[in-house]
Structure of Alkyl hydroperoxide reductase AhpD:
Amino acid sequence: MSIESLREQLPDYAKDIRLNLSSLVNETLLNDQQKYGTFLATALASRNADVIRAIAAEAQEKLSPEAVTAAKAAASIMGMNNIYYRFSHLVSEKTYQTLPAKLRMQVIANPGVDKVDFELWSLAVSAINGCGMCLDSHDAVVRKGGLSTEQVQAAVRIASTVHAAAATLDGEAALAS
């Protein structure tokens, strides 16, 4: 499997998603680690098995084993953090924002790859999971780390396209059953 095989699975009505996948694979604003780590982390966050398999196969060719593990860790930890921090941000009772999270999240401090890359992947996953508090936090870190708004946008474009591919394939599977 590959991103090309993923493109071929998408129906004709999702031609825009197919074309966006192609252009994002060729994105030059991000280095390969940033780009393929974003693809992998967001595929995992999108939760579609076909998308995960296709993107993981290609990402594993482009990333070091440490980067593969870190991209998986970004999807995992943000799956937890996005729920917790979205809750504390959205609930009317503001006391929750002052309480310590009491959740283990050591991987953020020591991800095993460049911190800025891990934070970029965390930001992209947060875009899928809809946590504004996490988006702001990770955006501040990557921007302080030297990434431009265009680079951040490229990562979020990857996230949105990967998520759209997953949603399309999920919808097609539901219609077929």
